[in-house]
Amino acid sequence: MLADTLVSRCGVRRGNVQVEVTMPSNFLLTFAKADDCTQVLFIYNFSCGGACLSFRRWNRLVHAGSDKLRYLTKLTIDGLSVHATGQDEVKQILNSLECQLVEMEAMVDACTLSMLVWAANPNRLPKELLIEVPERDLLPQPPG
Which InterPro entries did the record assign (predicted)? Predict the structure, then answer.
């Protein structure tokens, strides 16, 4: 809800902001662009869901763990079979890499899939990964 309100009120692109709920009742906003962050910091009288919100820049003195900050990363997977390029299949792969899908790009060819993801640490992403993709179940044929 907060991300949608930021999109409509501030013009921030949905893929450029991540909202994380932190303790006890605050939010940690992570922006892909510094300009979007600056724009949101200067908003006054911002309300969302009936609550008035104010924004300030995060620093290490705030009760948010720096290990939870995410990096917006362009990730390309080569050699993935065509039947494994659906959004659900891609999300399963990304979950195993501690990534969250933001946006899938249109496929240029049948074996290269590019996307924007939030990554906990892009330096930990493997250069090669063995992925086992089971065949989709075939629909039973009607008797006849």
Answer: Sex_diff_modulator (IPR053253)
pLDDT at 66: 47
pTM as predicted: 0.47
Res 96 pLDDT > 60: yes
Domain boundaries, the chain: 2-68, 71-124
pLDDT tens-digit profile of 64-87?
A: 444 554 788 899 988 877 777 778
